Amino acid sequence: AGTPAIGERYWVKWRDGTAHLAEVVEQRSAPARSRKRQKVGAGAAADGDGAAATGEHKELYVHYVDYDRRLDEWVALERVDMAAGAVEKEPVAAPRPQKRRRNRTANGETAGAAAVALEKEHEELTRVKNVHVIELGRYEIDTWYYSPFPDEYCTDKLYVCEYCLKYMRHRRTLRQHMRDCTLRSPPGREIYRKADATGGTSTTVFEVDGSEHKVYCQNLCLMSKLFLDHKTLYYDVDPFLFYVLCRADDEGSHIVGYFSKEKESSEGYNLACILVFPPYQRCGYGKFIISCSYELSKIEGKVGSPEKPLSDLGKISYRSYWAYVLLKLLKDSREISMNEVSRISAIRIEDIISTLQHLNLIRFWKGQHVVCLSPKVLEKHFEGFKVQNLCDPACITWTAPVPKATPSSSKKGDSRSRPRPKPKPKPKPKANGRRTR
Question: What's this model's pTM, rounded to 2 decimal places?
Fold first, then answer.
C-alpha cells in the first residue's frame, strides 16, 4: 500500500499502544533529528529494515477523530495500521432546511456567514502545529496548538527564557542569553507574595502593563497560544494588564501561568484570558488565578465575570470555583439574598444562577429564583471538594487604579465642582442703535 492520502482515515497507535481512528491532515519527509525523537508506542515495533533504513522517512500529521486538536501530532508510518486500510467516513446527514425568521435581517445573516467563514479560515491556517516542543526552565513541554511565531522560529523545538520569555532556536543561544539576562522575575510590580508552609518557596503574582512591557507581553501571548486554541491577542497588548503567577525560590520567580484583563472593560469583565502551563496543571493553580481575579474585583468594589465563551478547561475551573464559593457562603449564611451573595463574592448574578442550576439547587418560584438546599445535600457537595488553593486577600499589596479624568475635567480639577463664572452683561445700545465696543 502507498502513503495514506490527506483526508483519509486510518487506525493509529497512541504511545500507550491503544489504537484510535485518525484523519490525515498533512504529510512530510521527516528530518533526521525527528527520526531520533520518534517514540514508538507500547506493542509497536520499530521497522529496522523499512523506511527508516532509507533516506526517505515519511511522517503523517493526524487528527484523532472525536478528540481535541491539542492531541494532533506527527506520527511515523510504523504507527499507522496500513494492513487494515483506510476507513470510510460516515455520511453526514444534510441539515433540514429551516424557515427564515421574519425578524432576521440581512445584516445579521451576513455577519453570521462572515463569522463562520472566519472560523473556517482560522482552522485551515492553524490546523498544523508549527512548534512542537518548548523548553521552559527545567521543563520540556509538548505544545497543543499552532501559534503565529515568525517563520524563522517555526521549528521542532524552541528554547524560552523563563524570566524574560525571549525565545530561541538553539540551546547554546539560551545558555548565552541566561548569562546576560538581568531578569529573575517578570517585569512590572509584585502585588502578591505568600510563603509556602514547607518553607523555601513562595507563591507570587506580578502585574505587568502591556503598554510598558510590550515585548514581554507579546512573547507571553505567543507562547500561551501554543496551549490555547482560540486565543487571538498576539501583538496589540497595550490595552491589557497581565497578572503573572510564579513559584519563587532562591534562583528566581518561575512562571506558572497568568491571566489578563482589559484596563477598561465596558462589559465589566475581570478576566480576558487565563492559562496554567501544562507542568503545573491539576495542582489547583487555575482556581488560584480565578480567585485572584475576583479578589482584585473586590478591592475595586466591582462585580466581575470572565469573557465568554470559556474554553473547555476554563469552564471546568470556573464552575468548580463558583460552586465552592457559593456553597461556602450558603453554608455560613443560610438566610442570604442573591444580591448579597453577588456583593460578597464579586460574582455576577447570572454566573451565580447558572452555577446553582448546574448543581440542581435552584428553582423558579412565584417570579423569583429560590435556592433549595438541605444540610445533607450541602455536606454531600462539600465532600467532593479537595483542599482549595485560593488567593489569600491578606497577602495582596495592590490598590485599585485611579480612574482616568474625563474629557470635561481639567488639570485644576473637575469643572463640575467649581462654580460657573457669571456671564458678562450685554452692552446697552446707544440711541443710534450701535453697540459699544
Answer: 0.78
More confident residue, 125 or 5: 5
Task: Report, in angstroms and rounded to the nearest whole number, the Rg of the chain calculated over CA atoms.
Answer: 29
Distances (CA, A) of 331 to 291, 298, 323, 340, 391: 19, 21, 12, 14, 20
Q: Is 78 a catalytic residue?
A: no
Closest by CA position to 62, among listed 11, 130, 18? 11
Q: Note the pLDDT tens digit of each residue in 331-364.
A: 888 778 889 999 999 999 999 999 999 998 887 7
Domains defined for the chain, CATH in brackets:
9-79 (2.30.30.140), 129-283 (3.40.630.30), 311-394 (1.10.10.10)
What is the Cα–Cα distance from 231 to 141, expressed in whole angstroms?
19
Query: Which one is catalytic: 90, 152, 307, 350?
Result: 307
C-alpha cell of residue 261: 484583563
Where is pLDDT greater, at 252 or 53?
252
Nearest of 164, 163, 161 to residue 175 by alpha carbon: 161
| Cα–Cα distance, 58 to 62 (Å, whole number) | 13
C-alpha span between 158 and 143 (Å, rounded):
10
Can you name the residues that pair with 347 across neighbouring β-strands?
304
Residue found by looking up cell 531578569 in the block: 183
